[in-house]
Write a structure and sequence with these properties.
mainly alpha, 5 helices, 0% strand
């Protein structure tokens, strides 16, 4: 992750503040997610299949991307 976690006290929160972070989801991360979840759907693991149904390439699991919500809430927003 590119940005270090921050801590804010409740009194430091102001309207308009923004919290964000970024990460790069790699092919290795997707492969590990596939192993953990056993979700071998071809839309996630097969570029040819994804192209056949109209996508440019296979897509990342939605739950893999959603798994970063707790990171945002727990590491970058006040508790």
């Amino acid at each position: 992750m590119a940005n270090a976690p921050r801590t804010l006290e409740y009194a430091e929160i102001e309207v308009g503040q923004v919290a964000k972070f970024s990460t790069t989801i790699t092919a290795e991360m997707v492969a590990q997610f596939v192993e953990i979840t056993a979700d071998y759907s071809p839309i996630h693991v097969d570029d040819e299949y994804a192209q056949k149904i109209g996508l440019e390439q296979k897509i990342v699991h939605g739950m893999l991307t959603a798994s970063y919500i707790p990171t945002l809430a727990g590491m970058y927003l006040p508790g």
